[in-house]
Amino acid sequence: MPSPATPLKNDLVSDIAAQALWIRRRSFQMVYEAQQGHPGGDFSAADILATLYFGVMQFDPKNARDPKRDRFVMSKGHCTGAFYSVLARAGFFPETDLSTYMEPLSALNGHPNRNYLPGVETNTGPLGHGLPVATGIAIAGQMDKADFRTFVLTGDGELQEGSNWEAALTAAHRKLENLTLIIDRNRLQQGAGTEDTASLDPLDEKWRAFGWHVEMVDGHNHGQLLDILSASPRGRGKPLCVIANTFKGKGVSFMHDNVFWHHGVPNKEQFEQAMRELV
Amino acid sequence: MSAAAPSKSGFFDCRDSFATTIEALAESDPRIVTVVSDSVGSSKLAGFRKKFPERMVNVGIAEQTLVAVGAGLANGGKVPFVSAASCFITGRALEQVKADIAYSNVNVKLIGQSSGVAYGELGPTHHSIEDLAWLRLFNNMKLIVPADPWQTAEAIKAAAAHDGPVFVRVSRMAVPALERPEDAVFEIGKSETLVQGNDATIIANGTMVHRAVAAAKALASDGISVRVVNMATVNPLDEAAIAAAADTGAIVTVEEHSVRGGLGGAIAEVVSTTSPVPMRILGFPGFVPTGSAEWLFDHFGLNEAGIVDAVRLTIARKK
Hints:
The structure holds two protein chains of two kinds.
Chain A: H1 5-34, H2 39-56, E1 71-74, H3 80-89, H4 130-143, E2 150-155, H5 162-173, E3 179-185, H6 203-209, E4 213-218, H7 222-230, E5 240-245, H8 268-277
Parallel strand pairs in A: 1-2, 2-3, 3-5, 4-5
Helix pairs in contact in A: 1-2, 1-3, 1-8, 2-3, 2-7, 4-5
Chain B: E1 11-12, H1 14-28, E2 32-36, H2 46-51, E3 56-58, H3 63-75, E4 79-85, H4 86-92, H5 94-103, E5 109-113, H6 131-135, E6 142-144, H7 149-161, E7 166-169, E8 175-176, E9 192-195, E10 200-204, H8 209-220, E11 226-230, E12 233-235, H9 239-247, E13 251-258, H10 263-274, E14 279-284, H11 293-299, H12 304-316
Parallel strand pairs in B: 2-3, 2-4, 4-5, 5-7, 6-7, 10-11, 10-13, 13-14
Antiparallel strand pairs in B: 1-8, 6-12, 9-11
């Protein structure tokens, strides 16, 4: 017999799936209209973002700097198509603003700026910045014995930046249970596979060796993501690293696992085909 | 704030002023925390650690994380004072200073310790004579170079009171307490005129200010009337004081920094685009040879005699 909670969870998972689809469609339209962006990474991260904002995090978009809010740091700051879409969908600013993506004087710069947009915690773009800043946020929460959690999403190629490993040491040393790192493990960086560039595997063993609790999930499975990310992170005395196995370009056949779409932009036919597939 | 104890015959280590001031501020403001990179001793923060062990974050030898953790702590409502050797907190973590602190415009105070050539014989890797040139490019970051213990204490208080990014460049070189009126106040962006004069103006900051005052006194005995302006804030500059300096017809700048892009460069940008007058910029030409800090000052003319010569040469070029 399913528990009474199961139908509710199913409803939540269905909603997250619908939001993820909306994020993919909206972000791809933004990239198509701007003829700029990083749609492959938008698509690998869409399910993670939808799960966080619609199933896990506590926040009030009308009080975006509420001290009690859960924090999300978008370390892979180039994937603003997906990030801005989820922020608008979650109510931080009007969805109509998304149509200004990368236009002159738009608040929707190619990389996020906290002074332009509510919901952005720190300005990212150069890689390897998110985890160290998120570590500082989590230390502040730990000092205050606050309940809020801090989430940070990095790419996987980004882990080649040494600053991540500095922060990994400090986060484990300070037992930051309130810090959750999610790695968008799509195995592709800008120019090639991560394992053909500067190998990261065995990635789980690296994080364990640095003193983190590691979970591996299918980064496109909303139920799995929801279970792992919404479970209490407390009691282990370790920060949590969720390695989300994903595909760059997930959701569109011709983009799937294709490095071209790191920052490839669609022509009219490609855009229309993608819209036919994203239903 | 009482001044720190003299180290030798009326000379002070301004790090002591930083330490006593930050401890006093932390007593009354629970948001104040310190962040260090194994730099407790060199920042003179052992006393702070003893009083507030839960309010110090030591990230280890990891300057990128040092600066970024400061940004994160500010996000969490703290007022972090991030303190490390100036050469490392700026050069090693420059992109974090740019993106996480300045461009993000967060309420973080960066303290560049033992700046300039204080680590004399250790060589250019440990000198910080590029820091102001790098940081001056971040237009929203306040840059303060205090000249003595009183001004160091006031600069730290002003940094804590200001909502936004501030860099305070602290020296370990012994300096005397400057003579100034009892009711003197420190304000970010406001210079102070320590010696009045009309034949030329010396604009200095940090460890060079007392040397500039000595040079002006020497020139006065020869009948040359030289103004001395302590331009402790490099960003924003006190442009009114610079315009007034230009009215004297000759300007000499003196700094414990490279001659490229520091105080002299900043003032030259203003002078050349408003009221051009002959200028001379005293500082270091670039990487310097082996020598103690005092030897380097003498070698590059950053002493009373060198400043006197520079003033005479600049006055000779007056139109």
